[in-house]
Amino acid sequence: MKTTLRWIFRTCAVLILLILLLTASLIAFLAVTEYRPQKRQPLEISGSRTGKVPSDTLTFLTWNIGYSGLGKEMDFFYDGGTRVRPAEPDFRQSLSGILETVKNHDSLDFLLLQEVDLDSKRSFYENEAGKIGSITGHYRVFAANYNVRFVPVPLFSPMGKVVSGLLALSAFEPRAAVRIGFDERVSWPKRLIFLKRCFQVLFFQLDNGKELVVINIHNSAYDPEGKMRRNELAQLKEFINSEYRKGNYVIAGGDWNDNPAGFMPGAIRTGDCVFEVKPRIDPGSFSGWIFAYDPHLPTNRNVDRPYVKGITGTTIIDFFVVSPNVEILSVKTLGNNFAWSDHQPVLMKVRLRL
To answer: Nearest 5 degrees, angle CA 25-CA 29-CA 35?
Structure first.
């Protein structure tokens, strides 16, 4: 009996020691390979066209494509679902739908995309940024915000490698492009597997001596008290106001993970269940700036279950914020019943007040 108990004790001790060693090895590996971008980092601009912005009337599309892995049939463990990544046929179908949508809108001046993967297990290691960029002929600028060699959650079906970020496509040649990191306050060791949030900025020289400043943004999710988003908005506000004071035209679009100022759930009459994101953006914090969105269609759905109209929660978190010297001509959400992503694309047409 004593021999048996001694064997059990030793076996348990060895297993515990092995688990501790594996955990320590994983943390060490993640620490050595941690993505550490500079606070302000120049970005590579790919493309071969020439020429400045030729007109005062410009068109935009913003869309969080959900790495082609969050189509209407998908639920996600981090949102209360059970799945980690889609079945490959579902992924291929979503990617095909996203590529077709981008191709059908390649005449637009700017496309601002979020959650675009380069080399991730969750998207079957497809270079989505390359595939999307190759079908438009636009200039391409990519800014990473998620670059982890191995995400170890969930424990028995880990996400694995993730390389993802923001992709901006422009019909005109940017003068410069930069990645500006948000002031992260994620504690260690969580930060080793967490996103490094940022916003992506493209600068375009205009004939009147001023600049057009286009910003692609994806603010924090999983922030129920809104502290991280409030800090991100404060940092963004400081940047866009500094550019506007120079006389420049500023247009920021993307996935804000916040409702736009003036959002009214009752204006959405698609038969969807609609919720509000709290705490709300203080409209006074962007005094004089314009929130541009389509109030009648949701742009985002919960991923706690596959999409079912009238049951799945939806809201509006994808929109544009533009400086007072920009006139909004039209804004329209392209409703597709969340066929290929947990977000729907938003189109906008503006005129610069030259």
So the answer is: 155
Using DSSP's 3-state secondary structure scheme, residue 67 falls into: helix
- C-alpha–C-alpha distance, residues 66 and 106, integer Å: 20
Q: What residues contact 255, with CB distance under 8 A and at least 6 apart?
A: 62, 64, 114, 115, 217, 218, 219, 300, 317, 318, 343
Residue 156 has what pLDDT? 84
Q: What is the 3-state secondary structure (H, E, C) of 43-104?
A: CCEECCCCCCCCCCEEEEEEEECHHHCCCCCCCCHHHCCCCCCCCHHHHHHHHHHHHHHHHH
Average pLDDT over residues 107-112: 96
Residues β-bridged to residue 291:
321
Nearest-angstrom CA–CA distance, 1 and 162: 50
Q: Please say whether the beta carbons of 295 and 258 come within 8 A.
A: no
Residue (of 128, 72, 137, 131) closest to 105 by Cα position: 137
**Contact yes or no for 263/295 (Cβ under 8 A):** yes
- Residue 1 pLDDT class (50, 70, 90 cuts): low
Give yes or no for a contact between 118 and 164, defined as CB atoms under 8 angstroms apart. yes
The one-letter amino acid at 20 = L
Tokens for 85, please give them. Answer: 């990544």
Among all chains, which residue has been given the structure tokens 């994808």? 318
Residue 4 Cα to chain centre, angstroms: 56
CA distance 140 to 23: 39
**Helix intervals (H) in the chain:** 2-32, 88-104, 128-134, 227-245
- Residue bearing tokens 């941690």: 34
Per-residue model confidence (pLDDT) at position 351: 97
Residue from 302, 297, 354 nearest 331 by CA: 297
pTM of the full structure: 0.94
DSSP structural state of residue 160: E
As given in the structure block, the two tokens for residue 120 are: 């991730």
SS3 99: helix
At 79, the pLDDT band (50, 70, 90 cuts) reads confident
Q: What is the rounded average pLDDT of the residues 77-100?
A: 94
